[in-house]
Design brief:
Layout (H helix, E strand, L loop, with lengths): L4 H17 L9 H11 L3 H15 L15 H13 L7 H38 L3 H28 L1 H9 L3 H26 L5 H12 L5 H22 L15
Length: 261
């Protein structure tokens, strides 16, 4: 599949908007949002949704990265992975393989985003100095320049990824079949790793029964995702009402003040 210049520009603009949106806390930089837009632009919305869903499962655990570690950037599977999945669909590259192939780009993009953040910190100092001088015009420009910088960086990433899709196709076509199969298997394991990372941080012994209930519902009862969501909602409501009935009420504690303290 060939990507036109117009589609490259649209993907670049979409990537810029999604990347800058995270500065406003609206989570437009998630895999599902970016992949859905790319799928819509390239005319294959189902593939975009599938890539976004798989990317969300894999990157769900990276949202709880420990210490000062910086996780890979979701633009890897959200933009590059979706482009690979759609353009290489006829060459035996499935969503799992595209997810595995997009991880090097996710790591590289995170280095670029970190450098962008580092550059944007200089704009804060410029805004503060302008405010001290009561130069409000320069202050407004410097204060809003961070958003513009992220839009430009996102556009370059999206446009470059789409424009170089032919080169990626030729490079991926050189991968032998056995390695492509291995990448597909590895890609299908990444969502499980994402869940494992979440459980490693969040799972407590009190929550293990709920994890087992979800596993039984999927593995043995063959419930669809919506069915599991409804069961989980019902269990959450039961726990909420039970805690409301037998919960501890706040006890009034008498505090003595001495010497005015």
């Amino acid at each position: 599949m060939d990507i036109s210049i117009f589609q490259c520009v649209l993907i670049g603009l979409w990537t810029g908007v999604c990347l800058a949106g995270m500065l406003f806390g609206i989570y437009t930089n998630r895999c599902l949002i970016m992949a859905t837009g790319v799928g819509l632009i390239l005319g294959d919305l189902p593939a975009g949704l599938a890539m976004g869903a798989v990317g969300e499962l894999a990157f769900m655990g990276f949202g709880v990265s420990q210490g000062g570690s910086v996780p890979p950037n979701p633009m890897g599977p959200g933009i590059v992975g979706t482009i690979i999945a759609i353009t290489m669909k006829g060459n035996g590259i499935d969503v799992g393989s595209a997810l595995a192939l997009s991880f090097p780009f996710a790591v590289a993009f995170q280095f670029l985003i970190t450098a962008t953040y580092t550059f944007a910190t200089t704009l804060t100092g410029t805004a503060v100095k302008a405010l001290d001088r009561k130069d409000f015009r320069t202050f407004r420009i410097a204060a809003n320049a961070t958003v513009c910088v992220f839009v430009i960086v996102g556009f370059l990433i999206g446009f470059g990824s789409a424009f170089s899709s032919d080169g990626m196709q030729k490079l991926i076509s050189l991968i032998p079949a056995w390695l492509s199969t291995g990448l597909g298997v590895a890609g299908k394991m990444l969502p499980a790793i994402g869940f494992a990372m979440i459980l490693n941080v969040m799972a407590k012994k009190e929550l293990i029964p709920f994890v087992l209930i979800g596993y039984i519902a999927i593995a043995y009862l063959n419930l669809p995702v919506m069915g599991v969501a409804v069961v989980g909602t019902a269990i959450a409501l039961l726990e909420f009402f039970r805690a409301g009935k037998g919960g501890n009420t706040a006890e009034e504690v008498e505090v003595e003040f001495e010497d005015g303290i």
